[in-house]
Prior knowledge:
By secondary structure, this protein is an all-alpha fold. Helices cover 73% and strands 1% of the residues. The chain has twelve helices and two strands; from the N terminus they run ααααααααααββαα. A two-stranded antiparallel ribbon has the order 1-2. α1 (2-31) crosses α7 and α8 runs antiparallel to α9 (226-243). Keywords: Cell membrane, Electron transport, Heme, Iron, Membrane, Metal-binding, Transmembrane, Transmembrane helix, Transport. Pfam families: Cyt_bd_oxida_II. InterPro entries: Cyt-d_oxidase_su2. It comes from Kitasatospora cinereorecta. This is Cytochrome d ubiquinol oxidase subunit II.
Amino acid sequence: MALATFWFIVTAALWTGFFVLEGFDLGVGMLHTFVSREEPGRRAAINTIGPLWDGNEVWLIVAAAAMFAAFPAWYATMFSGFYPALILLLVGLIVRGVSFEFRGKSDNPRWIRTWDALLTTGSLLVPLLIGIALGDLLHGVPIDQSQEFTGGLGDLFSGYAVFAGITLVLLCLLHGATFITLKTTGEVHDRALWLARRIAPFTVLAVLVFQPWTHSVAGGGVLPDVLELVTMLAALAAGWLLAERHEGWAFVATTVVIATTILSFFADLYPRLMVSSTNPAFDLTVHNSASGAYALKVMSIVAIVFFPLVLAYQGWTYHVFRLRISAEQFDVPEAARD
């Protein structure tokens, strides 16, 4: 089924797009209280993603929709088995979105601190929980011959899955810190660069461990393949470029790291969609979980027509909001406060 394989590639591309674009949004959300001690600086950090975050989040919705439409058995087994974690993920997404809107509704310091804490927490939960869920797909969870999840909540937290979540958190932190350096000036820029340089060693180490571990869990041994080797080299390059203050190229490197991390994960997963730890014969695969040929054909036509339009629109949005932001833009004069 060539169309089933095509939709596996599309799904992998959508998850990659989500983490590349939403990755720096999540990083900014986690770091916005650390890049400045003052409210104007924090507002500047948040406003670097203000026009972008909700559009970037659409990639998550479309990725989940692609799983539902192209591989309904995969969607059903995963979403029912991972239900508690997915509820917590939804809470994180909702709290994060609400925080952007509500933190500026009052000048009360306690009000702002509350929403800052919720924004940071929500931004942390999203990559952590999605990383754990993706790790479970490859590491395996209890699935029976009826493609039903038979485990409990504890089965979702294997060592590999938890490390996958931590690795994605670190990647988002580094991606976000590097993005802030590109979009801000003054103290916010300097503190973001300082943070990026200190996050980089931990992120590089995590990537250097995660890639061989992923390949090993997939059954390919500890020696990385070409795509995983690119990921590791890009991570090392990102750390060096930040040390040399080449922020633009560092952001390119972090983009490559996140993209190839997700792509290499799905490459190791194929042709499986969800590994059964009960019996390999019960694995969900591209071939035993796909929708009918007609449905996949219609979906393919829709994707080919509309996907380029979405990319063009998002590219135009990034072009419009390409300028740097300074904390001084949000510094209210004393006369106005009175």
